[in-house]
Specification:
240 residues; alpha/beta; Rossmann fold; five-stranded parallel sheet; two-stranded antiparallel ribbon; 7 strands; 48% helix
Length: 240
């Protein structure tokens, strides 16, 4: 007996559910893959370094896959944190590799308020906490980071900070706009390309975020962000 329309609908719903479950199950593995060292680099391909926080950890494996055969894509084994962490660790993250392109961001950790008594992950507390890096210091730190990155001779692409939801525990929605404006001044000063990741993530529907008030994304959200990164990086590599 041939299956009827209802059977096909049930099959489709089941397959959709299984696919969603697979994405959620593989998300931790994808995060681990992002920071795992790449054992073999193809010497015939350009080297691309991604610097950033956990948002970049989420999209790096997808960028690596999207640029397979066109570039070696790597990132540090650590969350790059705020600009203070960047200044303290940049030399180690750059290492001895000759980088052809560096896609980088700092911001979400800089604009975060933290309090030692907060029980929220990361001690986040935008009501009683202290701002991690003031806006003026963020701009100065970012300028210093860019000056060092320029010495690598790599093409530099700045990724604007992704959206901060209103319910975020340690961040004030809209602060990322101010920090992005400061970053834009630095990038304009140094003639650096900006990959605007804020505008598209601001338009993301709520079901692409990990949860209410969460700056992180579900696998589908990271896949969309990775698409923007792959496009910008691939276009620039063609020019090189």
């Amino acid at each position: 007996m041939w299956p009827n329309l209802s059977d096909f609908k049930r099959m489709r719903q089941t397959l959709t559910w299984l696919f969603s479950l697979l994405l959620v199950t593989l998300a931790p593995l994808a995060m681990a893959a992002a920071v795992a060292p790449v054992p073999v680099l193809d010497p015939a391909l350009p080297n691309v370094l991604i610097l950033g926080d956990s948002i970049s950890i989420g999209y790096t494996p997808l960028v690596r896959e999207g640029l397979r055969g066109r570039a070696n894509v790597l990132r540090p084994s650590a969350n790059c944190g705020d600009t203070r962490a960047g200044l303290a660790n940049l030399e180690k993250w750059l290492g001895a590799t000759r980088w052809d392109l560096i896609h980088f961001n700092w911001g979400l950790h800089d604009l975060c308020y933290r309090h030692p008594d907060s029980k929220v992950q990361g001690n986040r507390d935008k009501m009683k906490g202290t701002l991690s890096v003031a806006l003026a210091d963020y701009e100065l730190n970012l300028d210093a980071l860019v000056l060092r990155l320029k010495k690598t001779g790599a093409k530099l692409i700045w990724a604007s900070t992704t959206v901060v939801p209103a319910e975020e525990a340690g961040r004030i929605a809209g602060d990322e706009v101010k920090y992005n404006a400061a970053a834009a001044r630095v990038m304009k000063k140094h003639g650096i390309t900006i990959n605007d990741l804020h505008a598209p993530t601001r338009a993301f529907p709520s079901d692409l975020f990990s949860g209410p008030g969460n700056v992180h994304f579900k696998p589908e959200g990271y896949a969309r962000i990775a698409g923007f990164v792959v496009q910008v990086v691939a276009e620039d590599l063609k020019k090189q």
